[in-house]
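Lab notes, practical 5.
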Amino acid sequence: MPQLPLHHVFHPAHADHYAATLGEGLDHLLRHLKGVTGPATGLAPAAAEQRVAEVDLDRPLADAGQVLEEMSRLWLDDAVWFHEPSYAAHLNCPVVVPALLAELFVAAVNSSLDTFDQSVGGTFIERRLVEWTAQRIGFGADADGVFTSGGSQSNLQGLLLARGRHERVPAERLRILASAESHFSVQKSARLLGLGEEAVVSVPTDARHRLDPAALERSLAACTDLGLRPMAIVATAGTTDFGAIDPLDQVADLAVAYDAWLHVDAAYGGGLLVSPTRRDRLRGIERADSVTIDFHKTFFQPVSSSAIVVRDRATLGPATWHADYLNPRDATNPNQVDKSLQTTRRFDALKLWVTLRTMGPDLVGRYVDAVVDLATAVHAARHEAPDLAFAAEPELSTLVFRYVPAGPALDEARSAALNTAIREDLYASGRAMVAATKVDGVQHLKLTLLNPMATVEDITGVLDLVRESGARLVSSFAPSLEAAR
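Output from the prediction step:
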């Protein structure tokens, strides 16, 4: 009987094989990184799909070198690089090196953070980081929380806890109030909780795209007049499109008045907790019942690294379930699964721990300030450009705008098509990546700036590429406009 090859298993006896393989992989990555010249190559979905579909997964390759070459052809050669200054699309950040160092240990040791006997010190590292985050928020000694896969899961858990306060209230009577600019995961969470999307009341925003307290009060009063129960209010500290921060203190006042759970979605704006200059923008967050923080956004951590933090640990009860084989009721060890929606869970907290122990929170906060300052400076440099129309001044690090050609105005359909084509043109060229959104139903483009190494010249350069592309493409959408010039 042939001997089973076991050298692929991570084990002290196979340390040399592991080190050689890892070294080969690191060399391959660094060689590739040195050759990166833009955020993307513009590969079309059909071509990417065909390459992957042609692979026979039942016929392995001979060695790691061949696997790495194939991996590059299928993915790495056309991967999107968030460290490139001309990447300005989604809420993805370049990651800091200490977190990458931690990833080496997270993956190799493969601790699972569900029970103490699978994680040991990892349990207390995660708990200490939750405690540190709670202190930064302004919560007291009763605070608690747990790391999650991302902001959507954190928001879901926050609303699950709010639902737990009203177990005896029929689902059809419960309402969640959130601004029209809140994250889509609020509606998705309502559906997952069996409340239905109609349970979410969309509250108008003000001229700065923040939840309007007067409109919120009217909505709360209307709900109670109809015999409905305001289960929760979701305030956003950093909306996806505008980076707007809702007036948290005023929202908290209304949450108290109507006995509603206050959840603050600070997935984007949570980095302000360590900002040396802008922490005051989160004033009132300490009055929340639960808070979402995405460390893989404005703490510059690799995906995934998020947390749900609550003011009172007793409110975590709705997330708890005991299993005799895992976390029985009479267990004496601290088990993180007692407060998590997940069971098996990566030790993602280690990345933040190593980052803080290497860089310190003040330096992370200075990175946050750098991207906010960048957005402000770019807006100042280009807001008067005659062919760019900005939808708002930046509050965090996003800029929403549209290309508006000179001459006779395009109708809305042609303008939307032109701006969409500009985005596609930039991606196809590999020169830059921008995002898209709609403001009051009108198509816009968006820059999301999370790269502390990017300069004003880098980002105004992206805007100039938008303008160049728009000027070149406009005749395709308005031939008469080009002829009039």
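Observations recorded by the TA: The domain at 15-81 is CATH 1.20.1650 (PLP-dependent transferase-like). Residues 95 and 300 are 5 Å apart (CA to CA).
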